[in-house]
Amino acid sequence: MWIRLLLFTAALAVSFASLARGTYQQPEDFLQDTFAGKVPQPQVVWLRGELKTEVEKLLGHRYPSLRVRYWAQGNRSAWILEEVGKDLPITTGIVVDNGRIERIKVLTFRESRGWEIRYPFFTDQFKDAALSGDYQLDHRIDNISGATLSVRALIKQARLALLLHQHIGNNSVPP
Question: What pLDDT is stored for residue 97 in this prediction?
Fold first, then answer.
């Protein structure tokens, strides 16, 4: 009897973990929602010189690319970023408006643990967050037990989007 219960519980845990992985929204759909169907042309920020150093300091490692793509209208920008949680990348869409996070959404989650970060009870904590002088968020983000590495990955992505938004500046973003 106990063995059956143990096997059932293990099977249930494995099935929940596999259900947690997946694509929750395609990047194209995230951009359509963000810009009400009128998605601007993508632009790029090149990670060179001081900006490259700042990004490495913020992330604690080299960024895997020399450039980052973004979409912007006025003082509002959208970023689709990836950061490794424990072993695999988490793809997130982040909207920054006037230097503050408007919205953050987990688009694709590949890990077996930490999937709770995709729910609004967690992502809503980022709303209206800005970057402080030491590359930290000016809002406290509560951790989720068992999802610490996924939480850290989202915090890094939020900080990166805010830093890059500052870098592109209001003057270089077309209306």
Answer: 97
The C-alpha atoms of residue 126 and residue 148 are separated, in whole angstroms, by 16
Distances in Å between the Cα of 108 and the Cα atoms of 84, 170, 175 are: 12, 29, 30
Distant-in-sequence, close-in-space partners of 38: CB < 8 Å, separation ≥ 6: none
DSSP per residue over 42-58, as a string? PEEEE--HHHHHHHHHH
Residue written as tokens 């042309």? 41
The pairs formed by 142-147 with CB atoms below 8 angstroms and a separation of 24 or more are 144/114, 144/116, 144/117, 146/113, 146/114, 146/116, 147/113, 147/114, 147/115, 147/116, 147/117
Q: Report residues of the chain scoring pLDDT below 70.
A: 1-20, 170-175
Q: Using the structure block, give the residue that is written with the tokens 């920020």.
A: 45
